[in-house]
Amino acid sequence: MTKIILKTVKELNEWKLTNQKDISFVPSMGNLHLGHKELIREAKKLKENLVVLSIFINPLQFNDKEDLRKYPKTITKDIELAFAAGVDAIFVPYEEEIFPTDKKKIKYQKASENLSKTLCGMHRKGHFDGVCTVVYRLINIVKPSVIFLGEKDWQQLLIIKEMVEKLKIKVAIKSINTQRDIDGVPFSSRNNHLLKNDREQLRLFSAELFHTKQIFNQTKNISLKQIIKRLKEKEIKIEYLEHVNAFNLKRSTSQVNITMLAGAIICGDTRLIDHVFLMKRNPIIAIDGPAGSGKSTVTKLIAKKLKFIFLDTGAMYRALSWYLLKEKINYENRKELNSFLSNISIKFKSASGSKQTVIINNHDVTDKIRTKEISSIVSSVASIKEVREFLVTEQRKIGEEGGIVAEGRDIGSKVFPNAELKIFLTASMNERAKRRKNQLEEMGHGLIDFENLKNEIQQRDFDDSNRKISPLVKAEDAIEIISDGYTINQVVEKILEIYLETIPKELHL
Ligand code: CDP
Known about the structure:
By secondary structure, the protein is α/β, with parallel strands linked by helices. The protein has helices spanning 9-19, 34-44, 65-70, 75-85, 95-98, 113-116, 119-123, 127-142, 154-166, 196-219, 224-233, 295-306, 313-326, 334-341, 372-381, 385-398, 411-415, 429-442, 450-466, 488-502; strands spanning 4-6, 23-28, 50-55, 89-91, 146-150, 172-176, 237-245, 258-267, 270-279, 284-288, 309-312, 346-350, 356-360, 363-364, 404-408, 421-426, 479-482. Helix 15 (372-381) runs parallel beside helix 19. The protein is globular and about 80 Å long. The two termini are 38 Å apart. The mean pLDDT is 95. Cytidine-5'-diphosphate is lined by residues 291, 296, 313-314, 317-318, 378-379, 382, 408-411, 460, 464.
């Protein structure tokens, strides 16, 4: 295919019309470096899409006019590099295309207040509003199916993700890890401004961040004061240095698992940013939802793919119910229940394939807990305060070090409220009953009456959602997935995609 340069919206539309393919979009301000090259490489992985790179220096995002005047402009070289890297078209719009003289055509965007009031946003007033306005305009012109952004500008990435979600724009966002030169310095167009000594300062700054990360990995602690002291000793001019929650950018607390140590420094006349991500324990994925939504199967497959522990908390409530029945415990009697609970041990063992055996006090109950009898009492057992406290403690112990995918009714809301990813998986009642019927029949439970089963599930939904303690609810920050019409693999892929795009790439195991 011929390589093409598009300068107007009209040309772009005509080109799109002749090709009729989805677009993978890499927005840029030109002066391309290896970071951009990597973005293009990532974009090209979606083989069925065409890759469009845009080069547009957005005047709105420069609060300093001198910075805009000086911003490196290397269009001829950029075009060469972009085509060599394999883009299908380069969109180099005239300024009037992005900002038509008819001002009504421009929809100025405001960046999320919470995300933009800190870090760079605090020091570059209006910067992120400018970024959002132009990115929104570019998305509307290019109409890509996927947009590729670098994690070097993590705050910008979060802000754009938030805008896309808020405005319900149908575009996926994929990001790549910060690309670094051999001396550890992140690639940036502004690096071109640096004299040798300035570059050395930047190198020392990045090295300090990575040194801190190394210390953190051993001690799980950092001291901002110490870092600032060390930087000052090296005569590095700090604009800001902050340790924040990596997802909401609020100041970090001891509760937060994934944080970012981020800063901006002034080297010569140039302002540069860098950061590292810090993680105390491995990530946790919480998957909640009602019966028959496909949670178990999906959770198992995700755990296998990520090599995480799979935790079926429902099996724990079921195992406990089975044992209460077997031992004929009167669980209405709290004293009897408490003494029973103090002697309980529930263990999971991985058996062949994706099967997991459930063992309660040396009884293998894997198949015994899926009966109608257990299903009919499990919700009332699960509504007892002492039972929940006991099992929630056990579940937290299993998840202490993270690296776990847990499924249940209260995982995101109660057991692991700090989980990095929370999914609420559901499906219509008919679909859920249909799936459960197939599952039970496959397990050899004989022919199952559909209406009866549906009533049973409805009753359990009602009990689970209306109990006093930890009812089944969608956690505020959970992402809802309605699985009707999707295969298990599609749901798994979707969740993995969300997970991979949530956790900073620097932390991927
Ligand atoms: O497999 P199914 O969807 O039927 O349910 P399960 O995951 O085996 O869980 C059985 C029952 O345990 C649920 O209906 C809830 O009453 C209870 N449960 C709970 O209360 N909290 C959890 N985290 C997991 C299960």
